[in-house]
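Dear colleague,

Thank you for sharing your sequence with our group. We've completed the structure prediction you requested, and as agreed, I am returning the results in plain text so they can be pasted directly into your records. Please verify that the sequence below matches your submission; if there's any discrepancy, let me know and we will rerun it promptly.
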Amino acid sequence: MVTTPPPIIFPRSASAKIHLERFGIEVPQEYLEAIAAATDKFSGAELETLASEAALLAFDEGRPQQVTLADLENCQAPQVGSVGTVQLRRLRQSATLFALEQVFENVLEDMKTCAEGRQGIDRLAQMIFVALPLEEIDKADWKVWVAFLGYSIGRERLVQEHRKRYDFLRQIICQELADLQTVKLIRADLDLTLEANALIALVDGIGIGVVICPEQFSADQQQYLVPTYQCFTAIILNTDA
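Please find the predicted C-alpha cells below.
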C-alpha cells in the first residue's frame, strides 16, 4: 500500500491559500504560515476541509470573506484526521453550498430593493446592475460564485443546486420581460426564455471576466454594457416593420 505524506510547510500554506480563495477569502501570509506550521500532520484533503469549515464559520457569524486566524484555529481543534473520506466530502460540499446560498440570497435581496419604485426598461437594468461586480464586496461574492462553478464540475448534487438557482433567476427575468410585453415595450412574439438566458450570459461573462482579469471591465464600463445591450434590443423589438 502506498501512502502519501502530508505536504511540507510551504506547499501546505499554499494549499490552504488556494482552498480559502475558493470562497473569495484572502488571508495574510503570516496567518497561512502559522496554520501550515500547526497542521504538519494534515493531508491535502484535511487542509481543504479545514479551510471549508473556517469559511463556513465566518459566514455563519455574518463575516463573509473575513476568515480570521481564530476561525482556523477553532476549526483545527477537533482533529480532522479522524474524519472519514465520505464525511470530508460532505463537509466540503455543505460549506460550499452554504457560501453559495449566502451570496445568492444577497443578490436576490438587492434585486428586490433596487426594483422598488422603478418601471420599464430602467427597472430591469437596475436589477441587472446589482448582480454585477461593481464594488469590491461584489467582487468577493463573485469569487464565491466562480469557485462554486469550478468545484461543482463532476459533482451532480452541486450541479443540480447550480441549476436550481439559475432557473430561479431566469424566472425572475422572464417575469420582468413579460411585464414589458404587457405594456408593449417589447415585441409580443419575443422568446422570453432566450432573452433571459442572454441577459444571464451577459452578466456571467462580465462577472467571470472581472474575477479572472480585474482590469478588464471597470465599474463604469460594466454599467455601460448592460444598457447598451438593452437599448439596442428595445429599439429592435419595437420595430414591427
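Summary note from our side: The CA atoms of residues 132 and 203 lie 6 Å apart.

Kind regards,
the structure core
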